Amino acid sequence: MALQTRHSLPASYAMKLLFLTTLFCGSSHCWAGEKKFELSFGTSQMLVDDVERADIKDRHKVVLPTTGAVLIAEYLWNEKWGSLCAFNMPLETQKFMVNNVLVQETAAKSILLGQRYTPIQWHVTDATTISPQVSVLLSTMFGTSTQVSPSLAGRLHITDESGFTMYAGAITTYGIKGYVLFYGIGHQFQ
Questions:
Q1: Overall CATH class of domain 11-25+35-189
Q2: Low-confidence ranges of the chain (pLDDT < 50)
Q3: Which of 43, 98, 107, 131 allows an S-S link to 90, with CB 3.0 to 4.6 Å?
Q4: Residue partners of 58: CB distance under 8 A and separation at least 6
Q5: How far apart are CA 190 and CA 182, in angstroms?
Q6: How are beta strands 37-48 and 62-64 bridged, if at all?
């Protein structure tokens, strides 16, 4: 079964990019004695134009945000690189306004896999670090049709020395007109 995407970027190109960043991260030395994993929970506001109904698919519509729950598991290769897996579970139906009529359908769940890069870290205090992070991801939505699309994410990540983390960010998905705002808390551990 071949991977299909609605975007001009082939899924094989995205897979090669993900593979190369994994090789680069794997060749980096992990720093000894530091936290290796991060597990976090959060919430999201999804704006996804992934309509399955043929009667409104090509019509002008206003996409309303869908609230979801986010679970992110991350392996920390070193201070700069990490591999992550995220699961986004919608908590309500997906809503659209079409000709001033509210249309609802089941919202798709999604899984994202990819690499995270931290370009810089600011030590606000001796115990607290703030860092912008960028991720290149492959996302899969599970609705009536499964598809794989490349995604780009960015977040502002705050960590303290005990391992407590907070973050807020955004994701854009190419191929399905998807935008997600998310925030949450987590913990880093060995």
A1: mainly beta
A2: 1-10, 14, 18, 20-33
A3: 107
A4: none
A5: 25
A6: unpaired
Yes or no: say if 63 and 47 are a contact pair by the CB < 8 Å rule.
yes
Evaluate if pTM is beyond 0.70: yes
- How many Cβ atoms are within 10 Å of 1's Cβ, its own excluded? 4
What confidence tens digit (pLDDT) does each residue in 153-187 have?
A: 999 999 999 999 999 999 998 877 789 999 999 99
Q: Among residues 73, 65, 72, which one has the least CA distance to residue 90?
A: 65
Q: What are phi and psi of 126, to 5 degrees?
A: -65, -25
Structure tokens at 50: 């992934």
Single-letter code of the amino acid located at 179: Y
Cα gap 11→148, rounded to integer Å: 7
**Phi-psi label, residue 91: left if phi above 0, alpha if psi -120 to 50, beta otherwise:** alpha
Q: Tokens standing for 112?
A: 């994202």
